[in-house]
Amino acid sequence: MDQETLQKMSFETALARLEEIVGALEGGTAALDDSLALFEEGVALVRLCNGKLDSAQQRIQIVTEENGTMVEKPFDTPAG
Amino acid sequence: MDISNMRFPSPLTVTELNQYIKDLIDVNPPLSDIFIKGEISNFKAHTSGHFYFTLKDADSALKSVMFRSSAQKMEFMPENGMKVIAHGRISAFVRDGAYQLYADSMEPDGVGALYIAFEQLKRKLESEGLFAPERKKPLPKIPSVVGIVTSPTGAAVRDIINICRRRFPYAKLVLYPALVQGPDAPASVARGIAFFNETKSADVLIVGRGGGSVEDLWAFNTELVARAAAASEIPLISAVGHETDFTICDFVADRRAPTPSAAAELAVPDTAELKQKFLNIISRERAVLQRTLEGYRQRLLRSSTSRVLRSPMNTIEDRRMAVLALVQRMDPAIQRELEKKRSALASASGTLSALNPMAVLTRGFCAAFSSSGEIVKSVERIKPGDAVVIQMADGAADAVVQSVRPNENDA
User: How far is A54 from chain B, CA to nearest CA, in Å?
Assistant: First the structure.
C-alpha cells in the first residue's frame, strides 16, 4: 500500500485493516513474502493510528434548532 | 389493674427494673406496631447482616436496630442523613437499660409516592423484559462520535468533556442540550435520545446528569425516558447522579455508569492504553513472524544439509557399489547354472551318439538305400534292376539288384 492511500485512510479503517492483518499473520496461512509485506503494512498502520491519535483535536459540537431544523454548531465548552 | 398506688416492697436489682420496664413497653399495643420518621445517623451495616443506627430529629434520638431478615429485604441501602419512615416495634434492651426501635421496614420519607411509582414502573418494565441482559448491546471499542444528552450548563457535561479530552481527543463529541429536571425534562431527554437515533449521528450515547435530590433525578425514572432509552439502537450509557443513585434509565441502558465521568471512561478508550495495545500487537506480530521465519530456516537447513545436495558424487558411487554387489552375488549363481547346463549337455550328447543308427555299421552291418535315398527295409520296395547304394561304416558301394527273394517262412 502506498503512502498516499495510507494517509487518506481513516483511523477506523486503519484499525480494521490492522485487525485483519493480525488475524492473517496469526492464522499462519499467509505465504512468507506476504507475511513480511503484511507485517510492514501493520507497522505502517500502527504508525498512522498513533499519528492520528497524537494530532487529534477534539471537536465539540452542540445541537441547536435553526429554522425548524437541527444543526450542529461548535460548543463553547464550560471547561473546568 | 390500678397501679397508681403500687410500690415495690423492697429494692429491685437493676435487671429486675429493666425487665419490668421492658414488660411495660411490650404490653403497650401502639408501641408494637409503629411508624417513626426521622433522619438516619450512626448507620452501621454489621457483618452479621444486621443494621444498627440512630433515628433522630432536631431535638431527640432513638436507638434502632434492623435484623438481617428484614435488612435483606430493603430496596435501598440506608445512609446517614437520609430521612426515612421506619416501621417496627419499640422494646427495651435489658442489658443496657435502653429502649430502642426494632425496625422491620423502612422507606425514604417525603418521596413515598415517587418511591412507589419507581417500584411500579420498574416491575412493569422488567416484566416486559426491558432489563434482560441479552438486550444489552456492547459498547463500541473505538467510537468516532459520542452523543451526549444532558444539560449544557451542568457539571455532568463538563466532566464528560474533560474525561474525553484527556482520554481520547480523537472522538467528536456532540451535545444534545436537554432539560434534565422539571416537568419538561422527561420529554426533552427522550427527544435527545431519539434525535441521535433518527440521524444515526453517534456511535455511543451518554444520557444523564449530575447529582441531586431524588426529585431532581426524577426524569430518569419516568416511563418516557425509559422507553426512549430501551428503543435506542445506539449503545447507551446511563449516568445519573452519584454512585448510590439508581434510576429506571440505568436498568434499561446498555451500561450503567455510576457518574457522568465514569460514563465518559466507558464510552471512549484511553489513548495511552490504545497505543500500548498497538505496541503489543507489533511485538506479538514480530514474534509470530520470527517463529515463521525460524520454521522456514529449519526446513531449509534440513534440505540443504542432506547428503544428496552436499556430495552428489557419493550417490553415484553408491549406485556403482550396489551394482557391483549384485554382480558379485550373481556370479557364482551363474557359474553353477552354466556348469549344470554343460554337464547336462555332455550327458545328452553321449546318449545321442549311442542312438546314432549309423553306429551299428561299425559292427559290420550294411544299409541299403534306394535311388530316392530311402532306406530299404523290405523286399517289397525293390525289384531286380533297381540301383541301390550300400552304405558301410567306412564308405558306400553302388550296386544293381539281380534278384529279389522274400524269406520263405514269411510268405
Answer: 8
